[in-house]
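Notes for week 9. Today we move from apo structures to complexes. The key idea is that a small molecule is not decoration. When we ask for a structure prediction with flavin mononucleotide present, the ligand SMILES becomes part of the input, just like the chain. The input block below holds both the sequence and the ligand string. Read it once before you look at the output, and try to guess where the molecule might sit.
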Amino acid sequence: MANYVIAITGASGAPYAVRLLQALTSSGHGVKLVVSEAGEKVLAIECKLKLRGGLAHKEGQWKQALGLPESSDHLELFNVNNHAATIASGSYKVAGMCVIPCSMGSLGRIANGMASNLIERAADVTLKEKRPLILVPRETPLNRVHLKNLLAAHEAGAEIVPAMPGFYHNPKSIDDIVDMLVSRVLDRLGVDNELYRRWGGPLPEHAVTEIE
Ligand SMILES: Cc1cc2nc3c(=O)[nH]c(=O)nc-3n(C[C@H](O)[C@H](O)[C@H](O)COP(=O)(O)O)c2cc1C
């Protein structure tokens, strides 16, 4: 089982992050988690997950939210300002990193090598070590700066998996929509999953049009 760095920033789409954490930890993978200050705000709004107190308390809250025992070592939470964290160094081995959701601010700073907090430094390290870096941007509409930063990040080696769910799997709930996007992220990280019904080729019965 592998360790992945997961970063949550302040774009809309916190439910994607929570589902990704559930999927990784429930399948035995380890998560090194970092949440930006804005990410915490959006988590409280969108997932009703209000993180309180110090780092240890917040880590306990995460474990509870993910159904992990207090003693679990599948999740380790880092302070976003801890520049001395293990994941700030390329010598610390992880299988890859995902920023989900990725705000336009974090995207811009990652694309330009700012490394001003632990999320940006860990992303910088992931790129220099040529490990998979998956960015899940969420903004609409996109301005020219966003588009240029997306291209710059891609050219630097990041994979861009926009929070753009499809509907061809006929989702019945928000969870179905979230699962599809998270499945695509897990695919990019190389994690086997069957979170949604993949396209199987022929049109489903209800979509077949009779030709007169
Ligand atoms: C409810 C809420 C939703 C937001 N949605 C987005 C969004 O979808 N995309 C985005 O780029 N910024 C969004 N923002 C703004 C970011 O949180 C803000 O730019 C912040 O500085 C990003 O900081 P971070 O990259 O360190 O997390 C949102 C903010 C709030 C409070």
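The longest helix spans residues 174-189.
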